[in-house]
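Student: Hello, beginner here. Can you help me understand the protein record under this note? Any guidance would be welcome.
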Amino acid sequence: MSASSSTVAVYIGAYSTEVDAAKAHDLVSIRIGGLKALTNFHVRCYSKDMDEMRRMSKWDYICAVRGKGSTHTSKVNYIVRRGQPYLWVPENDMHNVNTIIDERGSFAVASPFPGPLGALLKSLKKLPPRIALSGDVLPLKEEKAKSLAEKLQEVKVSEQKAIKEFSYTVSGVLSSSASRTSRSDNLQGLLGDNERYTVYRFKTRSCTFIDVHGGTFDVDVQDLETSKADPLAQFSARIIDGINQSKARRTALMLFCFVYKDVNAKDVYVTSIDRKGFDVLAKVTSPALKDGIGDHQWKEFRFMFKDEAKDVEMFFSQLVEMEEEVINKVSASSGLN
């Protein structure tokens, strides 16, 4: 929540109840504006606090009041539509109290690594790349929330139709994934009547990209708002896990490293995919140690497609083409043709 002095907003913390937040607002307002300040409760309710107010400077008192509050965090459902994040918060969540009092908020978005890849990266102490946003959390009016729900219903139906029409190759990879939940399943949870939500629009003021090593990179908010979703995004987690669960496809990835990167890989996992290609983490031989015995290390490689993949089918079409190409090259060099 915040208390205003002229045109300056002063953040004084987040609170568990509206009453606690209102009292904190009153205390700071009285210290800044005196006994004539606009308060939620009568000033005589704070007679016991007056001595402390007089002993401390305005800023010290604000900090003291802020220290009595707490910051609430929770996992929320979200979608990004045309570069604009929307949040679905359960009606009984404390955020629905805090956002009434203070509209400022922060929002972190990450795609957790599924299946065996997650265990590997955890052992290497690598975190999923993520986006950190800060901005204003603004409740959507009922008619706008209803309109957004209708759009999501259309997205859900469209995605379910696409899944039914996938080729055998795509369906096989998706079914191999340990994660069987699709985006349409998650949307059904939001659109169903099992739990009531309050819908918010997140007005982004700053955006930071954080890579797996913890490096931070500022992203222009305008670029975020005008960006288009990658056509593979809604299926990326299941595609990555489906490929990594397949021994045959991971063997093909080892051949990719040998043919395209001139590297002998003992094991390979896909870490990310997009319309232009995919990234892998390969276990390769590290420089020889002093005693001449080699060791292994995990190294990142990027493989690019000849053409951008406009959809999931085109992604797999080019992946299969690359698999056939490396198999033919290895067979030819070994005299097996």
